[in-house]
Amino acid sequence: MSVHSKATKVTTHTLQEMKRANEPITMLTAYDYSLARLVDAAGVDVILVGDSASNVMAGQVTTVPMTLDHMIYHAQCVQRAVDRALIVVDMPFGTYQGNSRQALESAIRIMKEAEGHAVKLEGGSEIVESVERILTAGIPVMGHLGLTPQSIYKFGTYTVRAKEDEEAEKLIEDAKLLEEAGCFAIVLEKIPKELAQRVQSELSIPVIGIGAGPHCDGQVLVLHDLLGITMDFSPRFLRRYLNLAEEIDGAIRSYCEDVRSGDFPNESESYTS
Ligand code: KIV
Q1: 272 Cβ partners below 8 Å, 6+ apart?
Q2: pLDDT tens for residues 88-129?
Q3: How far apart are CA 171 and CA 187, in angstroms?
Q4: Closest atom of ligand 1 relative to the 27 alpha carbon
Q5: What is the Å distance from ligand 1's center to 222 Cα?
Q6: Residue 264 C-alpha to ligand 1 middle, in angstroms?
Q7: Of 107, 137, 142, 182, which shows the fewest CB atoms inside 10 Å?
């Protein structure tokens, strides 16, 4: 029998029970009311209000320009739509690194103004003080290791991380540190599957992968990638379930043709006096 029902709200404890029961966790991003409603109704366990909104919604090249106000706006839209899923909100670049007091204040704003259920922070030992301080306020924290897009200017590229032993060992240490600090789960992004499997087996908290292979306790994707809306992004790990960009293009062209030919609106689409 499943440890989580389709009717009851997902909590951080549900996810931990799912790990223990070996039940895969599903997680997707959402940034707006309409799509968040569909994602929640489809039974996704965790909705991530990701700072990938910077790329997907705002057309920016990196996630670095995202502000706390932007994240709160997106999280508010998602929160209004969601009945069941756990809502995790990304803390944007510059709101938690190197200053645990600022980290706590930023996390409190997310919880109070957007009514998120948890926050996600990128990094390991460098940010553990911020993680601990946020946890003192009773705010659940999800970690994020491997490819951490907020550090793109340090990495230089978006290629697979932790292929070398030294970086892999640091990642394992960081994962354990985040678990000890009290994170309820961690995301592993774009790392070799063998390394993700090791982290998954050595941690008792859920490990959710994106480009981290099949051995994680759950998987996360950016919704717009899965739906085939963002066609210029095709990493190996991405499975597209729709080609929505083509469908949308077709629908819009048909609409333009119908308006130009006088076919739209027709009698039944018009009001009479
Ligand atoms: O911002 C985001 O969408 C993320 C996922 C890629 C995990 O952090």
Answers
A1: none
A2: 999 999 999 999 999 999 999 999 999 999 999 999 999 999
A3: 12
A4: 7
A5: 7
A6: 41
A7: 137
The binding-site residues of ligand 1, defined as CB within 6 angstroms of any ligand atom, are: 29, 48, 50-52, 90, 187, 189, 210, 220, 222
Beta carbons within 10 angstroms of residue 229's beta carbon: 19
pTM check: above 0.85: yes
The single-letter code of the amino acid at 137 is: A
Closest residue by CA, ligand 1 atom 4: 50
CA atoms of 243 and 79, how far apart (whole Å): 27
User: Which one, of 23, 31, 29, 19, lies nearest residue 6 by Cα?
Assistant: 23
Closest ligand 1 atom to residue 220 Cα is 7
CA of 60 to the centre of ligand 1 (A): 15
Q: Where are the domains of the chain?
A: 12-242, 244-273
Which one of 3.20.20.60, 2.60.40.1120, 1.10.1740.10, 3.90.190.20 gives the CATH number of domain 12-242?
Answer: 3.20.20.60
- Extract long-range pairs of 8-14: CB within 8 Å, 24+ residues apart: 8/84, 9/83, 9/84, 9/86, 10/45, 10/46, 10/84, 10/85, 10/86, 11/86, 11/117, 12/86, 12/117, 12/118, 12/140, 12/184, 12/185, 14/45, 14/86
List pLDDT tens digits, range 193-206: 999 999 999 999 99
Q: Of 186, 189, 191, which is best to mutate to test ligand 1, by the most ligand atoms within 8 angstroms of its C-beta?
A: 189
Q: Which one from 166, 189, 202, 257 is the annotated catalytic residue?
A: 189
Question: Nearest Cα to 21, choosing from 5, 3, 43?
Answer: 3
Tell me, yes or no, if 189 is annotated catalytic: yes
Q: How many residues does the chain have?
A: 273
